Amino acid sequence: IRRADPSCHIMASSDVAVTEQPWFSRWIAGCTVAIQQLLTWNAEEITVVGIQAETGKNPATMGEWPELQKTIQRGFEEGRIQGPPDAWKRMEFRLIPLTKLTRVLKDAGGDTYVVLASCPGQHFAFVKSLIGANKNVVMCWGDAEDLANNITGGGDGPTTLGHPPARSAPATPGHPRLDSAAATSPTGRLRPVAPVVGDHVIAWHRTQAFYPATIVAFDQSKVEYSVEWDDGDATGKTIPMTSCALDEPPNRELVSEGVTVLFPQGRYRASEHKNDGGEFWFKGVVTAVKTAVDGSVIVSGHHAEVPKRTFRAYQYEFTIPLQKLRLMAWA
């Protein structure tokens, strides 16, 4: 059934106000980022799956599913989740009993993906065993590893950021490779992740570039962040979720020819009563990745777009250490 399974509305009400739970906005952000990433890979079918909870035993799991559907649909309608013209028609929402999950997972392969968004906690281990090594299945709930890394809140329902799946296919222009389990980086992440409240990020400002900031709030209904700019600027403090990157160096295996990155170039002066000055960041495209004699990784590339206004330090091409690059979760 395309778009939405009618059974999804059977448990539309709940005594639990899930939208007010500390984990809810992070979970929504994770599911949204996963869907956005799959669309950038031109997925032909994306099935968002929820495992039915037992009445009275998992109130948060029962309440989160209808809220997820509403938020994702609103994201498409308002253009915050972007993709090809028929993107919404590629989506399917299914709320199923655990006994039917194996049947659904069999379809995950090639250009068909499953986003497992909602599952009662007591079934986590069993569901993971069913998924196995299938890289076309994305799990968007919290587990012990997420909690240990302090990227989740508390609660009964899904609490993970939701990471796009690893892919075994070679990288294509604009799509980072996410296929190496052995890769290492300063952060140890094998894929870019969505920032959460409190994270330091490199974010787009409506003028012409990206700037350092800290996320102070997330609006799940609009899928937008509120930020405080490092330089104190009071303008453009509400940004789409897809317009920023976590401020941490990327894993080497995520950066290859054709991948879109953020890179620093040039500085701007402080302006009275406006900001304290700082560093410009721009969106670029990688053209080459080389390892130097000392083992450091050097990345070359060029601006993805020519800035509307150039500046003294502007150069179309760049060559900088990998450590200075940043990756957006949906690039």
What does this structure look like?
The protein has 331 residues and is an alpha+beta fold. The protein has helices at residues 24-40, 59-77, 101-105, 124-131, 144-148; strands at residues 45-51, 91-96, 112-118, 137-139, 200-204, 210-219, 224-229, 238-240, 244-246, 260-268, 278-291, 297-303, 317-321. A five-stranded antiparallel β-sheet has the order 8-7-6-5-9, with no helix packed on it. Helix 1 crosses helix 2. It is globular and about 65 Å long.
SSE layout and pairings?
Layout: H1 24-40, E1 45-51, H2 59-77, E2 91-96, H3 101-105, E3 112-118, H4 124-131, E4 137-139, H5 144-148, E5 200-204, E6 210-219, E7 224-229, E8 238-240, E9 244-246, E10 260-268, E11 278-291, E12 297-303, E13 317-321
Parallel strand pairs: 1-2, 1-3, 3-4
Antiparallel strand pairs: 5-6, 5-9, 6-7, 7-8, 10-11, 11-12, 12-13
Helix pairs in contact: 1-2
Strands of the largest sheet, in order across it? 8-7-6-5-9
Counting DSSP E segments of at least 2 residues, the number of strands comes to 13
Measured as a percent range, the helix fraction is: 10-25%
Order of helices and strands: HEHEHEHEHEEEEEEEEE
In DSSP terms, counting alpha (H) and pi (I) runs of 4 or more, how many helices? 5
How many whole angstroms does the radius of gyration measure?
Answer: 20 Å
Task: Describe the largest sheet.
Answer: 5 strands, antiparallel
Query: Would you identify the regions where 5 or more consecutive residues have pLDDT less than 50?
Result: 1-15, 143-188
Structural class: alpha+beta
Mass-distribution shape? globular
Q: Strand share of the residues?
A: 25-35%
